[in-house]
Amino acid sequence: MTLKIHKLSGSVGAVVSGIDVRELTDESFADIYGAWLNHLVLFFPDQHLSPSEQRDFAQRFGSLEVHPLTEKLEDTPEVTLLHSERGGRADVWHTDVTFSDTPPIAAVLQQLSGPESGGDTMWANQYLAFEAMSDPMRGFLRGLTAIHSAWPQGHPEMKAERPAVLRHPETGREALAVNRLFTTRIPQLEQSESDALLAHLFTWGERPEFTCRWTWTPGDLVIWDNRCTRHYAIGDYDSERIMHRVTVLGTYISDESERVQRPHFAETRLSASSAFVRS
Ligand SMILES: O=C(O)CCC(=O)C(=O)O
Ligand SMILES: [Fe+2]
To answer: Does pTM top 0.85 for this prediction?
Structure first.
């Protein structure tokens, strides 16, 4: 079998065929790893991995998370269950867990069963989103940070602040690093400026030109780079959709100096006049 890689869309994602991921040599893994950094999302159709095989594949990309709260499999606690009837829906554009100081670098997702039609997943390339902006806009964004909060999960106290544009630790490319689900504030700006800019950046990073879309068949396996993408699980189905998921931890940011230690935004709302009394 020869490894074949073809692009799924013009901007992100590639389908890998001619490979059984249970039987990767170091050489074929090196090819896959390079393709992953290049295409950001890799699709491996027709793999049908057992939970331990899925864990072993994911482990080649980094250490694995054992999540304290999510529903997981008994013998392979690294594998969590995403069940559409039990809260496992993600139909808002997002990047995973950006409210953490150490978000995951990747997720490996396999469909076990799904609807006849519908339930596709989309990804958007955030390198391209950044690169397609005007020079002045890119310069402006490089000087900003963004606050991410777990408020949609009922934990507004879980917050992280990091640059609005992140340099990928492995490729060195800059990516837009805000998302509609978790990013709440650009602390350097007035509230209404922050709201307007974030609304623009959310929509901008979701432009169809930056995306790909995958129609699942059970047994398909996907890995995405969580440092330079957003994704969206389309909620256009009624029947059951069941996925196995493994989360990969690692280096999310290129340099420790990019970790913003002390959020410097006001916890309390600024008064209406505060904009005019700054020195
Ligand atoms: O169900 C999917 O297709 C993706 C769900 C999701 O957002 C995730 O696994 O992080
Ligand atoms: Fe997600």
So the answer is: yes
Ligand 1 atom closest to 216 (CA): 3
- First vs last Cα of the chain: how many Å apart? 67
Q: Return the ∠ at Cα 148 (arms to 146 and 150), rounded to 5°.
A: 170
Residue ID of nearest Cα to ligand 1 atom 7? 90
Q: Is the CB of 122 under 6 A from ligand 1?
A: no
Which residues face 199 on adjacent strands? Answer: none
- Alpha-carbon distance of 44 to 22, in angstroms, equals 12
Query: Of 173, 135, 215, whose CA–CA distance to 40 is shortest?
Result: 173
Q: How confident is the model at residue 271 (pLDDT cuts 50, 70, 90)?
A: very low
Nearest-atom index, ligand 1, CA of 94: 7
User: What is the structure's pLDDT at 261?
Assistant: 57
| pLDDT in the model for residue 279 | 27
- Show the beta-strand stretches assigned E in 193-241: 211-214, 221-225, 229-233
Q: How far does residue 263's CA lie from ligand 1's centre (Å)? A: 29
Least Cα distance to 267 among 156, 179, 102 occurs for 156
Cβ atoms of 251 and 169 within 8 Å: the answer is: yes
What's the CA-to-centroid distance between 103 and ligand 2, angstroms? 11
What was the pLDDT predicted at 70?
77
Distance CA 96, CA 63 (A): 16
Ligand 1 pocket member 81 (CB < 6 A): no
Q: Which residues are catalytic?
A: 94, 96, 231, 245
